[in-house]
Design a protein that fits this description.
Blueprint lengths: L10 H15 L5 H7 L4 H4 L1 H13 L3 H8 L1 H21 L3 H15 L3 H11 L5 H29 L2 H14 L24 H31 L4 H29 L1 H20 L6 H31 L6 H29 L2 H8 L1 H20 L4
Helix pairs in contact: 1-8, 1-9, 1-10, 4-7, 4-15, 5-6, 5-15, 6-7, 6-10, 8-15, 9-12, 9-14, 11-12, 11-13, 11-14, 11-15, 11-17, 12-13, 12-14, 13-14, 13-16, 13-17, 14-15, 15-16
Amino acid sequence: MAESRRGTPTWPLYIGGFLGPFGGQLVGTMLPEVAQDLNVTIEVASIGLTAYLIPFAALMLVSGTIAERLGRRTSVRAAYALYVVASLVCAFAPSFELFVVGRIVQGIANAFTTPVLVGALADAVRPERLGRSLGMYGSLQAFGQAMAPLAGGLAAAINWRGGFVVVAVVAAVLFFLPPRDAADQSGVARGTFRSLANRRLALACLVAGLAYLTTTGVILLVALYGRVEFGLSPEMAGLAVAAFGTAGLLTGRRTGGLIDRLGLFAVGIVSHVLLGLACLVIGLTAGLPVAVGVTIMVLAVALGGMSGTATRSVAQNLAVTSAPTNRSGASSVMLACQFGGSALAPLVWVPLFYGWSTFGSLMLTGVPAALSGLVLATVWFVRRTARPAS
């Protein structure tokens, strides 16, 4: 979190990166309390997750490019102001319908912060340190995503509405710390949709969507799995999931550095395979004694956090280097696919978890990440095979 090339601190960018997934996943472990307080079933309450993610993912197809045209500073400040209002609506909603409206508006606002912050960070750091910086950003995103169940569990134990007041306060502070606008480049058109039509960005979108279908599934199912299989309290289930973000936070900068040294594809292939493997190990803890099962589960969650953060950094690096004149736009399109996978996760994995089997649902959760690793391996092999002929 050092000074940027333009002499401005980058730490507000990292904190903003934490806030997006934290606010999106905050509802996970408080679903029973939200359902009871607002008089709906848990299955209906889970719409609060999807209500945030669908508009978030859909708008990010265009939000980054729009922000580049309007200016990063103006766009991000307006988004944070809207996020504050939406969070307070969720905190004080008297009905589930109004709660869902607040979640939708939260997702809309976040669509104009997360991708723009990635673009601003890519412009702020030196190229040779891009992997490390994006690794740190990705680790804080993973930390936010995985700390959300813990915070949600703690809030549920007291009053779930307080969690939304906290995120409103953080967004209010960040309102006063927006990123700078992109540097002017004479003769170069910025914020064009045409610059996004390239194969590198398409690859980033594909692997990001598949990996996040797994990542969100791990975080969501482990919170439920810990409560059902081992009888953990909401707070303890959230603490177990927090291992995901903690491992990502501790290793993100180093795995990003590995991308700088070893290359995107080498790190990407290994990290996606490890993420899929972590899901399998978690499922295999079913039936074990509580102490042993929880210990293995937490270690596997930590492995998923480390590898999941690396997969995030790989996708972000592919995206922001695919369109140098529209980094925010490229980042937003990739993130639209990434969080599209995240939005699908509750709809796919929760019914399988409750209606089929705990082991089977967790095992299947790892398949998209493994498939993403296979895609990267195929592209890497094709490129190496074609290189001598070029």
